[in-house]
Amino acid sequence: xxxxxxxxxxxxxxxxLQVPAEPTMARVVRLAASSLAAMTSMDLDDIEDVKIVVSExxxxxxxxxxxxxxxxxxxxxxxxxxxxxFTAAQSFEVDSAELAxxxxxxxxIAAEHAIQHADGQLLIVATYIASAADHTDH
Length: 138
Prior knowledge:
Elements: E1 15-20, H1 25-37, H2 44-64, E2 69-76, E3 80-88, H3 97-109, E4 112-118, E5 121-129
Antiparallel strand pairs: 1-2, 2-3, 3-5, 4-5
Helix pairs in contact: 1-2, 2-3
């Protein structure tokens, strides 16, 4: 499972983190995301938005997954950061109110996002584009 986007890559490959499926690990993932976002053309407001998107990805994976760990894959472009997170999820409630809230937040901030469940895996993908490159209003 990979996150892809059009645009020039800044790194030769993705950055992949595997963390325990615990709420305290969201801080580690946000720190990694903000450090990677700082490598792009993103300003401080963009980096704060990236941290919100990553928080929603982590919260949804922790709340709706049942695996012992979460894998997060970042791909960095000149003006964007794509994050794909996945974990085991044998049972999955598509109509969950908490999941709907996460999806709404991601839709408001990220340029693209998707939530998928297949083959016992929950996958959440979001791409954030720097506000200078994204001509929509956040």
